[in-house]
TrEMBL record:
Organism: Actinomadura violacea
Keyword check for Electron transport: yes
Cofactor: [3Fe-4S] cluster
Protein name per the record: Ferredoxin
Keyword annotations of the record: 3Fe-4S, Electron transport, Iron, Iron-sulfur, Metal-binding, Transport
Domain of life: Bacteria
A Pfam family hit: Fer4_13
InterPro entries linked: Fe-S_cluster_ET
PANTHER family: FERREDOXIN
């Protein structure tokens, strides 16, 4: 599974960071960074939940 962020859509609300901090982080410029674009199996459920919870639908998954 691979996760991507659309930086033109993302408003850096941080919902995904709260749900899956091992995979997402906000940098010093308040931009979302995907720390692990290739999602480890043990974090897959949390990342799916984070993608579904994004208020701007800026995250996508490739399974």
């Amino acid at each position: 599974m691979r996760v991507r962020v659309d930086p033109l859509v993302c408003e850096a609300n941080g919902v995904c960071v709260g749900l899956a901090p091992e995979v997402f982080d906000l940098n010093d410029d308040d931009e979302l960074e995907v720390l692990k674009p290739d999602v480890p199996a043990e974090e897959a459920d949390r990342v799916r939940h984070a993608v579904r919870s994004c208020p701007k639908a800026a995250l996508t998954l490739e399974e």
